[in-house]
Amino acid sequence: MGLLAPWFLAGLGLLGLPIYLHLLKRHKSTPQHFSSLMFFERSTSSSVRQRRLDFLLLLAFRLALLALIVFAFSRPFVTSSAAGAGGDKLLLIAVDHSASMAFNGRLDRARTGAREVLAAAGGSTRAQVLSFASKVELRNEPTNDPAILRAAVDSIQISGSRSSLGDLAGSLRGLARASTSPVEVHLFSDLQRSAMPPGFAELRLEPGTRLVIHRVADADEPNWTVESVNAPSRVVDPKQTRVEATIAGFGAPESTRAVELRVNGKPAARQTVTVPANGRASVEFTGLDVPYGFNRCEIALAEADQLPADDAYLFSVERADPEKILFLHGPRAAGSAVFVRAALETAAPGLFSLDVLPAASAASLNLDKYAAAILSDTGALPSSLETNLRRRLEQGMGVLIAVGPVTTAAGSTPAAGLAIGGSQYEGRTGERFSTLGEADLAHPALARTGRWDGVRFYQVFEIQPGSAAVVARATSGVPLLLEARAESGRALIFASTLDNVANDFPLRPAFVPFLEQSLRLLAGLEERTARFAVDAALDLRTRDSGATVEVIGPDGQRALSLAESARQSTLTLDRPGFWEVRRPGGRRELVAVNIDRRESDLTLMPEDSAELWQGAPLDGARPGPASAAATNEPRRSQLWPWILAFALFAGLGEAWIASHHFNREAL
Q: What pLDDT does residue 57 have?
C-alpha cells in the first residue's frame, strides 16, 4: 500500500482538538444556605479539579471522523501485479482500417498479424478485437473463443475515414478503466504522422496498460493525389464554366501525370501536368458540357497508383436554366427594377432571369413558372393575383416585399397581410437618418452583408409584425426586415424601398449580396455544401418541421428508414461516393463525398515517438507473434472512496451519540 499525497498526514495533529474539548469541564458549586459565618475562623482553602475523559464513545467517533478524512486526503492505494501467461488479463487487438491502409495490402498484413497474436495467446486469455479510424468500433465482446475472434478480425474492411490515434488512445483509456484485469494492447497500423494528435499527452494510457505496436509500413511511400477541385455546383452556360484542380505529390519525385475530367463515368477532357517533387500543380478545364439535371463528375489521375481511393476527386454539378423571378412594381417604383437587375447580374450572372411587369397588368399571370417574386411598392394587388400569390406562397414559392408609400396607403402588405401604421421620415441633411440597428446576422439574407455599413434610411415604414419574426430593426427601433411563414413558403418584408428615394441602399455594396442571398433563400437555392469529406455531418433539417428527407447512399440503398428520416437532423456520411438527398417539395441534391486528403500523406510517425508511446523498442517492422506473457507492471487501486464512505458513517454516528448525550444532560 502507498500514499499519493503523504503530506496530508500532518493533519492528524487535529486529533488533539476533540481530546482537549472533552477535558474541559465547568466547575459547578451547589450553594448551601447557612445562617451566619461570624463564628468561623478565616483561613485559606485550596481546591483541586479532577479532569478526566467522559463520553468515551462520542470521543472515539469524533477521532475516527477526523482521522478518516485526513487519511482520505492522503490518497492511499494498493498495488497488484499483472498476471503472467494465461493469467487474468484482457488482450485488445486494435486494427487501423483508415483509407491509407488500402495502400499496397497494409490491411491484409494487419489482419494476418492480428490472427498470429491471437493464436499465440492461447485459448485461456480473454481477447477483444476493435477497429479504428476517426472512431473506434468494437467488433466483439471479450471472449476466448477462437472462432469468434477470427471472425471479428476478418470482418474489418477498409473505410474512407481518417485515422486518429488520439481518439484511439481515449477509447483505450476508457476500456482499461472499465476492465478489472490488466490490459495488453496490440496495435496494427501504418502509424501515419497525420494521425497524431496536436499534443503527445493525448496519447497517454492508463497505468498498467501495456502497448505493443506492430507497424505494417516499412518506410515513407510516395503518393500522388487529386488534392482539391474548384467547380461550380450549378451550371447555366457550359461554355463559360471553368473547373480547376490541384494535383499534389506527397514524398514523391517530380512526375508528369495525365489528368482526366470525367462526366457520369465517361472521359470528357484530358490534360497533362508536371508535378514538382513533393509539391503541387494546378490544371484547368474550360467548358463543362453536361446534360440537364444532376451530374456525377470527377477529376482523376489517368493512371491509378497503389492508393486508388485518392486518385479521383468527386464533385456534383447541376445543369439548369436560369430561375425565373417575377418582379412586380407599383406606379412609382418602376425604377427599382434597374437596381435589382444590376445587382443580380453582378452577384450571380445567369442564375436568375428577371421578368419585370407592372402589378396592375398581372392579374391573369401564371405564377407557377416562377421560383420567387419581388413586389416593389405595388400597393393593393388585383384580387385574382393576390389569391394566386397566396396559393403559391403556401406551396413553397418565396416572396420579397418592399414597402413604400403606395403600399402604406393600402394599409397592409400584399401576400403577407401585415398591417402598416404609417412611416418615419428622417431628414437627408445632418446625422438624423437611421441605419441598421439590432439584427440577426446569422439569417441567410444578412450573412456576408457587413451589417449594411454606410446604408442610410431616410424613410422607414412602420410595419406591425403580428406573427412575423423581426430579422432586423433600424436604429430608431422600427422593424426593418421581417420574415413571415406560410406553410411551405416564406416572405421577406423590407420596410423601405428598393430604389434610392427612401434610402441609399442600392448605392451601397451590401445591396448586392442582400438581394442574391434573399432570392437564393426564397427560391430554394440556398448555397448548401455539395462536397464533403468522409464522416462529415449532412444537415437534414427542412423548412417543414417533421417532414421526411430521403437519403440514398452510394450503393443505391436507403441510408435512413422512414422513422429515422423524420427524426434525425443530421446524417454521418461514412462512405465515399455520391449521396442523393430528396427533400420535400421535389427538391433534390447530389452530394459528393471524398476521403480526407490527409490520408494521402503516407509519411510515418517518427520511431522515437512510437517508442515513447509504447515505452519499449518497436516490435519489429512487420507484425509477428508476440510473447504471451504480460509484464508484471503494478496496477493501482484507489482506496479514498471507501475511506470517505466510512467517514460518512462515522459522522452520522457522532451526530446520533452527541444528540443522545445532550438530551440526557438537559434532563
A: 78
- Alpha-carbon Rg of the chain, whole angstroms? 39
Q: Are 159 and 97 in contact (CB under 8 A)?
A: yes
H or E stretch covering 168 = helix 165-178
CA 480 to chain centre: 33
Cα four-point dihedral sign 111, 114, 120, 124: negative
Q: Yes or no: say if 609 and 192 are a contact pair by the CB < 8 Å rule.
A: no
Helix and strand element counts for the chain (H, E): 12, 32
Task: Give the Cα separation of 234 and 523 in Å (integer).
Answer: 14
Whose CA is closest to 332, among 578, 576, 502? 502
**What's the pLDDT tens digit per position in 543-597?**
555 567 899 999 999 998 888 887 888 899 999 999 999 887 677 889 999 999 9
Per-residue model confidence as pLDDT tens digits over 243-258: 999 999 999 999 999 9
Question: H/E element holding 388?
Answer: helix 383-395
DSSP characters over 435-464 = -EEEE-TTSTTTTTSGGGTT--BSEEEEE-
- % of the chain with per-residue pLDDT over 90: 60
Q: How many CB atoms lie within 10 A of CB 64?
A: 18
CB atoms within 10 A of CB 109: 19
Record the pTM.
Answer: 0.70
Map 414-434 to HEC letters.
Answer: CCCCCEEEEEEECCCCCCCCE
Beta strands 242-250 and 280-286 are antiparallel
Extract the C-alpha cell encoding 570. Answer: 443530421
Going by their DSSP bridges, the two strands 136-138 and 209-215 should be labelled as unpaired
Strands (E) across 508-568 are located at: 531-533, 536-539, 550-552
Question: What contacts 24+ positions apart, CB below 8 Å, involve 543-551?
Answer: 543/396, 543/488, 543/490, 543/584, 544/487, 544/488, 544/584, 547/583, 547/584, 548/584, 549/581, 549/582, 549/583, 549/584, 550/581, 550/582, 551/579, 551/580, 551/581, 551/582
**How deeply is 500 buried, as exposed, middle or buried, from its count of CB atoms within 10 A (0-12, 13-18, 19+)?**
middle
For residue 125, the one-letter residue type is T
Distance CA 595, CA 590 (A): 17
Closest CA to 57 of 659, 643, 658, 666: 658
Q: How far apart are CA 603 and CA 605, in angstroms?
A: 7
- pLDDT at 12 (0 to 100): 78
Residue with grid cell 503541387, as numbered in its chain: 280
**How far is residue 40's CA from residue 557's CA, in Å, rounded to a whole number?**
117
In the block, cell 430593426 appears at: 473
C-alpha dihedral sign at 19, 22, 24, 27: negative
Task: Dig out the grid coordinates for 258 from the structure.
Answer: 495525365
Between the alpha carbon of residue 118 and those of residues 59, 131, 378, the distances in Å are 59, 15, 79
Distance CA 315, CA 233 (A): 8
Where would I find the beta strands (DSSP E) of 13-89? 76-81
CB-count exposure of residue 463 (10 Å: 0-12, 13-18, 19+)? buried
